[in-house]
Every structure is written in structure tokens, then in C-alpha cells.
Write a structure and sequence with these properties.
The protein has 315 residues and is α+β, with helices and mostly antiparallel strands. The chain has helices spanning 2-14, 18-23, 29-39, 43-54, 129-132, and strands at residues 65-74, 83-89, 100-109, 119-127, 138-144, 153-154, 162-163, 187-194, 201-207, 212-217, 232-242, 262-270, 276-278, 285-287, 293-295, 303-307. The structure holds 2-acetamido-2-deoxy-beta-D-glucopyranose (2 copies).
Length: 315
């Protein structure tokens, strides 16, 4: 935990403009540690969000499925977070029913830790046969205002995400061409930013091009602090599958194999004035089974993640 506290302190400094930085005191190591513990290490809540993710129809299926996470995250800015910028390379593989794999950014407020307190939006790519009825790679969004108890859903399965007219891509769309682990990359460029005036979370995406506005999560979907800002931002991979039939995360390759592993790059966090701050150093990480699925340290706003190469990975 000592390392987590140090990097948390470094990010805290990064997110403050110089004047405020000089006049503000750092959170104590203990405060930073508690926050990270509550926001990032509370797998109970994170997994609940993903249970629904992997088996949308019945919660009980989670007993048979194991869900693995490998991600970086941050939850220490005193004024909260107002957006995320990053580039994910996109992969595909054949999965069966009960298996799922996703790369995502979670912009969240986990409240007091109770299930109903979880509010978040999730954006990324996924392969999820239980949801789509195919094993293609899809662009996806997801949101909740109460830990998926009575609000929120994938894509546009319920009212929530409001697509932009004429947008090049919509939640749930197939991403037809994907990266090859050792070859050409297909990039999903993301920019999620809170409109400082309306309070809507604006979602910009671009496949192999600069992100363009494709829709929004209106402020009115959310109550409490999350209507105004996020407490944490997490980014990385998820894989879910029965124990006997594991699924790849990222490209399927562990981050030690930087030529073949999936990456998230150009990572920037947005402050209350709408300014983007490149992440220059490492951030805390969570790996629920590091021997199978892992993240590399963040260097120059980029890290590698994934693992459990599972044939046949798309060549
Ligand atoms: C995580 O969430 C659970 C479920 O609501 C809660 O009981 C627990 O106290 C939380 N843990 C932390 C470390 O916040
Ligand atoms: C931001 O919100 C203001 C006020 O509602 C609105 O006029 C403006 O068009 C919004 N910007 C975008 C990009 O939606």
C-alpha cells in the first residue's frame, strides 16, 4: 500500500493548477489510502456491475462465472474528475455463451459502498455472446444511478444514453475490423467530458480517427454528487467465464509481451475547468488474479494489460 499512497499523492499534485497546488495541503497518506480502498478495491460493487454485464438475465449465473479485473484507477483529486481521454486498441475472439471480455473506462462514484450507492458510466469495447447473440466485438456503453438495482442498462436497452443525430457509431454497434496482436491496430479513441454548463456527460469516440460527439448521458439521470462530478476513474480490462473455460482479456497476451498485449494510451484526466491533464506517472492498480491477467505500470500515459491467451485468438 505504501507505493499506492506515493503515486496517489503524485496524481493529486498533477490535478491541481499550480496556484491551488501551492495553497492546498495534501491528503494524508491514510486518507488517500482509505479512498483508494473504498473506490478501487471494493470489488463487491465493481463485480456487481459486471455480473449484470456478463449475464444480463439472471444474477445466479455469477456463481458459475468468475470475473477477473486488471485495471488502473485514481480516486484522489479533491475536486473530483470531469472526464477521461484515452485510446484503446480493439481486439476480437470467438467466445461461447457464458464467456465475456471487455475493455472499459469506468467513471464512477461508489457512494458509501452500499450497492445502491454505486453510480457510474462505462464505455469501451466488449465481446459478450450472452448479450449480443454473437461473438463479434461491439462498442458499448453502460450506466447506473443505483448499482443496477432499478436504473441503468447496456447501450440503448433503456432510456438513458442519448445518441447524437448522425453519429458515426452508436452503443452496441459492431466494430467490424479489429487489431491483430502482432500487426495492425484498430484504435478506439475516447473522450468523455462533463459539459460544465449543462452537466451532461458528453461521449466522443472515433475509430482510427479523432473522437467526435456521439451522444450523452444527461445530468438528469444521476443524483447526489455524481450529477456534478466523478469520484474515481478506472480503466482496463475485464474477463468473465466459467472456471473450466477461461476467456482472453485485452488481446489475450500478458502485458509482459508488449509487442502483442493490448494497451490503453494517451491517458488524460479532465479537471473541473475542463482542462485535460496527461497522466505522466504510474497509478494504483487492481489485478484480481495477477498470474492470469495483469497490467503494466503506466509510462508516458500508456500501459499494457490482459492475459490468459486462449486459442484461437484472432491471428
Ligand atoms: C464494499 O461494498 C460492500 C457492499 O456494499 C460494503 O459492505 C463494504 O463495506 C465495502 N467495502 C469497502 C472497503 O468500502
Ligand atoms: C453544453 O451545455 C450548454 C447549456 O445547456 C449548451 O448550450 C451547449 O450546447 C452544450 N454543449 C454541448 C457540446 O452539448
Amino acid at each position: 500500500m505504501g507505493i499506492l499512497v506515493v503515486v496517489a499523492g503524485a496524481l493529486f499534485a498533477l490535478l491541481l493548477p499550480p496556484a491551488a497546488y501551492a495553497s492546498r495541503s495534501y491528503p494524508t497518506g491514510e486518507e488517500a489510502d482509505q479512498k483508494l480502498h473504498a473506490i478501487i478495491n471494493n470489488e463487491t460493487n465493481s463485480i456487481r456491475g459486471l455480473i449484470d454485464h456478463v449475464s444480463p438475465h439472471h444474477d445466479k449465473a455469477s456463481d458459475a462465472n468468475i470475473i477477473y479485473f486488471a485495471y488502473h484507477g485514481v480516486a484522489t483529486a479533491p475536486n473530483g474528475y470531469y472526464g477521461f481521454i484515452g485510446t484503446m486498441d480493439v481486439y476480437g475472439f470467438p467466445l461461447s455463451q457464458g464467456q465475456g471480455s471487455a475493455a472499459a473506462v469506468w467513471i464512477s462514484d461508489e457512494g458509501d459502498g452500499a450497492r445502491s450507492g454505486l453510480k457510474n458510466i462505462m464505455i469501451g469495447w466488449d465481446v459478450l455472446p450472452d448479450l449480443y447473440g454473437d461473438s463479434k466485438t461491439h462498442f458499448y456503453t453502460k450506466w447506473t444511478n443505483d448499482g443496477y438495482q432499478s436504473t441503468g442498462c447496456f447501450n440503448t436497452k433503456c432510456n438513458g444514453f442519448v445518441p447524437e443525430k448522425g453519429a458515426a457509431i452508436a452503443p452496441g454497434d459492431v466494430i467490424d475490423r479489429v487489431s491483430s496482436p502482432k500487426g495492425a491496430k484498430r484504435n478506439l479513441n475516447l473522450k468523455i467530458i462533463k459539459n460544465g454548463t449543462s452537466g451532461d456527460w458528453l461521449v466522443h469516440t472515433g475509430l482510427d480517427r479523432d473522437p467526435q460527439l456521439i451522444g450523452r448521458f444527461p445530468r438528469s439521470l444521476f443524483t447526489g454528487g455524481f450529477a456534478d462530478k466523478a469520484v474515481g476513474v478506472l480503466f482496463g480490462g475485464v474477463a468473465a467465464a466459467p472456471l473450466t473455460n477461461p476467456a482472453p482479456m485485452g488481446s489475450g497476451y500478458l502485458p509482459t509481451d508488449v509487442k502483442s498485449a493490448a494497451s490503453i494510451s494517451n491517458i488524460q484526466l479532465i479537471d473541473q475547468d475542463g482542462r485535460a491533464w496527461p497522466v505522466t506517472g504510474d497509478l494504483p492498480k487492481v489485478e484480481t488474479n495477477p498470474s492470469a491477467y495483469a497490467v503494466s505500470p503506466i509510462v508516458n500515459g500508456q500501459f499494457f494489460y490482459g492475459g490468459h491467451q486462449q486459442p484461437p485468438v484472432v491471428p
